[in-house]
Write a structure and sequence with these properties.
With 132 residues, this protein is mostly helical. The protein is built from four helices and no strands. The chain has helices at residues 10-25, 31-52, 56-89, 105-115. The mean pLDDT is 67. Residues 56-83 form a coiled coil. Residues 1-26 are annotated as: Disordered. Residues 17-26 have a biased composition (Polar residues).
């Protein structure tokens, strides 16, 4: 029965099977020939692994690039949040660069909103009952 091949391995599995079948078909192989077959099989496996994994320098470079990209995205998100807040709330925005630095930025905003007089709507005329 021929050996099963997995979907992703194709040629590698076939070449390994051929090498091992050569050994089984020729029982008169010398130790040197067997060692040579083993060495070529190991060399093929190592070559395939080195092709699939990028070198460490390339991995380190890609990690550095991804970290920079993440940092840039965080800065951009922070900037967009501040600009939206400033655009929407004007000078009262707690992150506005025009506000003076405070220990607690919202403290003054809350205080002033509580102490400002509440605007009253214009007094509407109430109809008086007819009094002769």
């Amino acid at each position: 029965m021929p050996p099963r091949r997995t979907r992703g391995r194709g040629n590698r599995e076939t070449s390994r099977t051929e090498n091992s079948s050569q050994i089984l078909e020729n029982p008169s192989l010398t130790a040197a020939q067997i060692a040579e077959l083993v060495a070529t099989t190991v060399a093929q496996i190592l070559a395939e692994r080195s092709n699939s994994n990028p070198p460490p320098d390339q991995q380190a470079e890609e990690l550095r690039r991804l970290r920079e990209e993440i940092a840039n995205l965080r800065e951009e998100r922070e900037y967009n949040t501040q600009s939206i807040c400033f655009w929407k709330f004007g000078l009262q925005c707690p992150t506005s660069p025009l506000l003076s630095p405070r220990k607690v930025p919202l403290e003054d905003l809350i205080y002033t909103s509580c102490t400002d007089p509440i605007p009253q709507p214009a007094a509407a005329r109430t109809p008086r009952l007819y009094q002769p």
